Amino acid sequence: DAGVTQSPTHLIKTRGQQVTLRCSPISGHKSVSWYQQVLGQGPQFIFQYYEKEERGRGNFPDRFSARQFPNYSSELNVNALLLGDSALYLCASSPIWDTDTQYFGPGTRLTVL
Amino acid sequence: AQRVTQPEKLLSVFKGAPVELKCNYSYSGSPELFWYVQYSRQRLQLLLRHISRESIKGFTADLNKGETSFHLKKPFAQEEDSAMYYCALSGYGQNFVFGPGTRLSVLP
Lengths: 113, 108
Description:
Order of helices and strands of chain B: EEEEEEEEEEE
Radius of gyration of chain B: 13 Å
Shape of chain A: globular
Distance between the termini of chain A: 36 Å
Largest interface: A-B, 22 and 23 residues
Structural class of chain B: mainly beta
Number of helices of chain B: 0
Shape of chain B: globular
Mean pLDDT of chain A: 93
Oligomer: heterodimer
Order of helices and strands of chain A: EEEEEEEEEEE
Largest sheet of chain A: 7 strands, mixed
Radius of gyration of chain A: 13 Å
């Protein structure tokens, strides 16, 4: 198993645009979480999905949305991009939704100009 | 509210010296505590979690509920331990909360 995979690796957008980030969990994992990591800070929780339902949402504006598909892969969408959205976006999967070890992907580096 | 603090942004020690990375948390229930590590150009990965009570790569961490701490320790640091270390917390039905991280630099 290749572990958690994310695409694309890097992305450059301009203010006001929209972006979609993708994540494939480890085979057999049903929970996917999204984190934003700004340079010099720890990962900040955005969303958790389990069995295609939202199980948790962090303190992020409604411009951020996500969904999980029947194969447990997930997308994170960010609308009306701001300069402050520039960050590394991490996806993590776990077998179940609760307090379980998170397995992280390599991240997508988003730069907003 | 859940919160994790790591007071040191950077910790430098010499090879063979003991190392302690500090982590304090605030949580009203019984949390699960974790240490994650990120080596240069690698993804974030689990180092250890308190319920497993394991020693991974010579590191140990003890949960002190009285002091609400989960400090990471290793008696003899190695150069390959140089990395970014994040303490994290999760509670039942709660989301993961990560600390800001401590960069450990082990000098030869």
